[in-house]
Amino acid sequence: MIAFFTTLLRLFLQAFRSKRTILSENALLKKENEILVRRLGKKRVHFDFYDKLFLVALHRAADIKHRLTLVEPGAVLYWQRALLKRFWTFEHQPAQRGRKPVDADVKNLILSMKNENLLWGVKRIQGELLKLDISLRTKTIRKILQSFRRRGKIRRSLRPSAINDIILPRTEF
């Protein structure tokens, strides 16, 4: 009998609730339903960042702690503190400084161009690279060639056998 009167009293008080509390409770129930639908076939409920952000914002707008069914009220308060800490400490990954390094394939291409065409300069190599949609500054190409030259990988002249093949074709008398 007491349960009947308490239920009747709750229904009577529901009629005098503000529109804000009704909307917040409706939004909470929709979000919990969305989370549960996403959970289908899994053992545990998973809250991603946007779920947590939504529940924290909803808690800030209207006190929903006592209406939560999927999580404990302390969890929402913990998420709120974590979000504030994350916002104010500016924790993020450091950006890489400088330009991206030139790939080894491009460096080897520059080396082969230079060794096959000894008279080509930096500008000519840059033009040939642009035909292949590889954009490098002349200064970068010059530094790459200097590093190869220091290691002794760039030829200084044509080999004697190659000169004879180019200038005088071999003919037998």
Query: Any idea how many domains?
Result: 2
- Kindly report how far apart the N and C termini lie: 127 Å
Mean pLDDT: 82
Q: List segments where confidence is low: pLDDT < 50 over at least 5 consecutive residues.
A: 163-168
Helix content: 55-70%
Order of helices and strands: HHHHHHHH
| Total beta-strand segments | 0
Overall radius of gyration: 36 Å
Number of helices: 8
Largest sheet: none
Overall 3D shape: rod-shaped
- Strand content range: under 5%
Based on secondary structure, the structural category is mainly alpha
Protein described:
The protein has 173 residues and is mostly helical. It folds into two domains: 18-89, no CATH class; 104-153. The protein is built from eight helices and no strands. The chain has helices at residues 2-14, 19-39, 49-61, 73-89, 104-116, 122-131, 138-150, 160-167. Helix 2 (19-39) runs antiparallel to helix 3 (49-61) and helix 5 (104-116) packs across helix 7 (138-150). It is rod-shaped, with a radius of gyration of 36 Å. Residues 163-168 have low confidence and may be disordered.
